[in-house]
Amino acid sequence: MERLTVEDLLLVAEAVLGVPAEQLAREARLATAAAALTAPFATARGRPRHPLLADKAAVLCARLALDRPLPRGNEAVALLATLELVERNHGVWTPPPGGQDEIAAIVERLAAGELSQDELRAWMRTRVRSR
Question: In 3D, which of 123, 129, 17, 125 has the Cα closest to residue 78?
């Protein structure tokens, strides 16, 4: 399964925020970003802790939104990085009935502590499937 790198994350952030990736690299907590990017691929006793692509997407989104590796825009970057992970791994993203408003509300509720990571995972499982 293909992973996102810190460089990939910085390029996503550049596109979202309109700030050069080089500047973001100087301002970001890169170790925190790296940890967030590897979290979806954690293993326990040699087995993936998050075997489904939807689960990996949920972990990535949560870690980026909650750990806040960037100086600003973490929620929006978390969502776009999650969609990039799904695309790179040949997954299919089905937009929710509430469209962009629903997506934004989900990520904002997560970041505010009003939505649990288990609830995010359940929501992602309705939105993401493998091909």
Answer: 17
- pLDDT at position 131 over 90: no
Handedness of CA 76, 78, 84, 86 (dihedral sign): negative
pLDDT digits (tens, 9 = 90+) for 51-84: 999 999 999 999 999 999 999 999 999 999 999 9
Q: How many residues does the chain have?
A: 131
Give the Cβ contact number of residue 118 at 10 Å: 10
Q: Is 60 helix (H, G, I), strand (E, B) or coil?
A: helix
Rounded CA-CA distance 5/17 in Å is 18
Domain 6-130 has CATH 1.20.120.1870: yes
Tokens of 64: 């980026």
Tell me if residue 47 falls in helix, strand or coil.
Answer: strand
Q: Which of 95, 67, 92, 90 is nearest to 9 (CA)?
A: 67
